[in-house]
Amino acid sequence: MEITVVHGDITHQRVDAVVNAANRAMRGGGGVDGAIHAAGGPAVLQECVERFPRGLATGEAGWTTGGDLPARWVIHVVGPNHRAGERDRALLTSCYARALQVADELGAGRVAFPLVSAGIYGWPKDDAVAAALETLAAAETAVAEARLVAYDRGTYELIRQSLSTT
User: Fold this and answer.
1) For residue 165, what pLDDT band results from cuts at 50, 70 and 90?
2) Which of 59, 140, 145, 161 is placed for a possible disulfide with 94 were both Cys, Cβ 3.0 to 4.6 Å?
3) Range(s) of the domain holding residue 108
4) Which one of 33, 88, 127, 152 is the catalytic residue?
């Protein structure tokens, strides 16, 4: 699998699936979650309600339609909330591993990922990047491209530099 990084908006990525950093309720929220729900339209929320009536556990993944997004699917993952005391790194790495498993089940060859838990959930950015790259690099998957999408320039540069040293 090729791991790439781009500076941009995850809702504009022309890939098979985008990964959503969701909350446990799976009903939309802020940050990446809010942006994906807004850009994907009501179909994304409707499927979340139907497919995940009780939400999803931290570290887990599930999928819905991409709705109005350029991507066919949204793979929702629930990252740990570092600010709320969820500091088990295995929950963070599970988000990437489970997202790839779901992508394989769907037959998604190109998947765009945000930096899970590094925004409002407060996971230290250096470790969030390391966890993402370590997990993606070690994965056994049919996914051809895992694209890390950084919304801001600083995060893009951090991922780019980390990727060049791995």
Assistant:
1) confident
2) 59
3) 2-164
4) 33
